[in-house]
Amino acid sequence: NTNKDWTSFVLTENASDAIGILNNSASYNKMSVEYKYELMPNRSWRCQVYLQDHCLAEGFGTKKTSKHAAAEEALKILQKMQSNIASLKVTQVQKVGCSSRGSGRKKDLKDLVIYENSSNPVCTLNDTAQFNKMTVEYIFERMTGMRWKCKVMLEDEFIAEAVGVKKSVKHEAAEEAVKILKKTQPTVVNNLKKGTVEDVISRNEIRGRSAEEAFKQKIKEDNIGNQILRKMGWTGGGLGKDGEGIREPISVKEQFKREGLGLDVERVNRIAKRDIEEIIRNYARSDSHIDLTFSRELTMDERKQIHQIAQKYGLKSKSHGQGHNRYLVVSRKRRKEDLLDQLKQEGQVGHYELIMPQAN
């Protein structure tokens, strides 16, 4: 990569000699290292090392020994430069969550509740910060070569740290932080992603619940239409002089105009918006603490409708899984304190479970 500056070169000391270290480091940094030879008047050779077209060092001797001498000199220069960079303590900071700074009141970590929604410790820390309305910071400090230190800070308080390659050091520091926090703080575990999803609402059940609701709303004796008909002499059964008419009121059904053979089956099987809304509205008005989990067989458009209807009734909705395994969960918006109180009383609320600290 010709756009990279040679001064950003990072050494990876994973070879036995200077040439191997330079070549492996060049591959890691995606930079170019070149060796250029020149025959001197005294019949010796000069070898120059170029890093990103910058002449870094040179060595003299035979054609073979001059290359080793030049590589060793280049390695010394890079090691010195890298130790200077390390002494400057190059740091990077990543922040997640909402900070309490500026509010005049710092949040106390003794009230922290760990929220575990995943087996990934970084996700657990990030979800915990958002659940508690706190800030988690990952502070990276370059040590030497490929070694980095990552510190985990919660509300400006140090929790844990790890040293390793940058690719994995954040995960290792987060894992250590979660382990430390679990010793003193309660954990709310969301078991939704663990194992198979049970008690899902299928396409047929959505229609079934809607039909059941319609049956409950049949014309009863206290209905004004029922009373008018009885005053006109109707005693029940079919309408008409001889009772040959219909017995039940006409139910509203979706009809696709002029469609018979060759009808798009997927369109016929589509769930009506009113069927979905009936279920969500009843859930919003109920006292149920169990989340609504809709089946994987629903289409993307149907899930979109559920998201919109849930928002309309002040509920949360979130899709889980990928592709054909994607399903949707509708739940109540719970305050941390309310959920904790319920969990302390009942032990489990819907998909949520409370685990107390592992050590005193």
TrEMBL record:
The keyword Ribonucleoprotein does not apply. It holds the Pfam family dsrm. Residues 270-334 form the R3H domain. One of its GO terms (molecular function) is DNA binding. InterPro entries: dsRBD_dom, G_patch_dom, R3H_dom, R3H_dom_sf, R3H_NRF. It is found in: Nucleus, Nucleolus. Its main location: nucleus. It comes from the Eukaryota. One of its GO terms (cellular component) is nucleolus. Gene3D superfamilies: 3.30.160.20, R3H-like domain (3.30.1370.50). Keywords: DNA-binding, Isopeptide bond, Nucleus, Phosphoprotein, Repressor, Transcription, Transcription regulation, Ubl conjugation. This is NF-kappa-B-repressing factor. The gene is Nkrf.
